[in-house]
Amino acid sequence: LILDTDELVDDRLRALIEGPSSYGLVQAHLSEAQLAAGALAEYDAVLIRSPTQIPADAIEAAFARTEGCRLKVIGRAGVGVDNVAVKAATEHHVAVLNVPSASTQSVVELTVAHILNCARKVPLADSAVKNGEWPRNALWSAGTELHGKRIGLVGFGHIARGVARVVQALGMEVHVFTPSALQSVSKRAEIEAAGYVAQLSVDALFASCTH
User: Is the Cβ–Cβ distance between 69 and 40 less than 8 Å?
Assistant: First the structure.
């Protein structure tokens, strides 16, 4: 039996769950009182998003039920698992799964859009045109090209790597600072092999970059 607490399952997924897999599906939000009473024990798997919190006491209460606990998997439809007591789940051999790259491309594109907006003064131009103005010369001199500029990235996770690939294609020089590069020669080599510059401090990153 699968519990969907945040209306994740649509008709197509419902057909998959209730069809070939022969699992039952319950779509309901559990209250704090229900969780504290061990309601999770009734389900083999729980699918959640950010609104649902699964604290340690909810997991402990489920496994304290005298009739036993069926819970085997907690699936988080998103990147983080900060709303799940992972330590308590692991102690009871419950797998906690997430989707690390769920929003990566969306965030990469939004980040690059903001960079372009700032460089080309798009919000200012948009506001001026809406007010009936056409400050072509002012905006022409205020905007700058990204090509040939240096961008600094703090961290080198999925999102930073995605942003680096896009802005490098625009002709920007990519500089990266990540704490792991301080301790690992292989991490610095990985950064440099991708065509980026590895910086050894945030101060050095800021001093070297234009963006």
Answer: yes
